[in-house]
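Suppose you are handed a protein chain with no further information: no name, no annotation, nothing but its sequence. What can you learn? This example shows the usual starting point.
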Amino acid sequence: MINISQNIRNVCKKKMPIPALFLVLMVSILICCPFINIFHPTSIDNIYDVTGDSEYVEVTADTLYYSGYNLIKTGQRDYGYYYSLKDNNCIFVIIPIDKTPKTILYNYKFKAKIIKPNKAYKQMLSAFADDLNWNEQDLAEVSGKFILSNANYHPVLYMILLWIVLVILLISIKKLFEAMAGYVNPTLYPVCTFLGKHAQKELIEEAQEELDNENYLQINSMYITENYFIDLGKSQVSIIPLNEIVWCYRLGTISLNPKKNLPEYSIYFTILNGTVIIARHKTSDEALELINAIRATEYNIIIGHSDAKRKRAKKIINKYKKGI
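A reasonable first move is to predict its three-dimensional structure. Written in structure tokens, the prediction is:
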């Protein structure tokens, strides 16, 4: 027995895993990524109060001295290595510089990410130690185990990431909610996108009644009853009243799946209000047989694709909208 509601539940069940997976993934990113800390870094008035525990900071340095060495990052502005020295405690920072860097900066406030010494920093430290006639190891010991790097502070990139995550999250929630709602109550599933929920309930009931009468033409998952086109596909369920269809035609597409050598076809239905409903993933024989079946109905439906037929369908739709 053909059961439209059960087919809707099957489709909805198949649609749940992907948005659920994306939902979990996006929530995980929101939890793991320190967005709040990035957009609202820890404010520290004294640079010597900075520890390696905070990942992002907004800090004020009373005095910074230019080391004479720069860091050039691809696609970004130039940065200079500056240091603050007090009581044998040296803290290096990486901050933006102009073409002619200032030798000393006073009361300089900046945002930075706390990073561990990397290869570029160690090379700079070695050369800087030679300039000072210091031992590199001794300089490394008084320089601490971290660097304050404005070059590694990228709030704009994280803002873009946050927006992407939020958009995907909202879409995933919407898709998952729709699938769950359709599974619980099949009348909420959009079998006909241009109808309201109440009209859809009646539509499903009437279509089911015509299927139960067994007076229909079946083409695999598609059915033509006295008054309806019904597609009970694996990924979509569509029900269209035949008297609403103005124009029907098929278009072929080349599948990107290398296992499929034959093109797939989609059947396009243009409705009186101008909405287009598409029945996808059909074989050439299925699409052709369906077109012929619709042509054989008592309804005056434009069949086939051409510019002249498109204009003809448009005139009918315009008249319908104007109430002529």
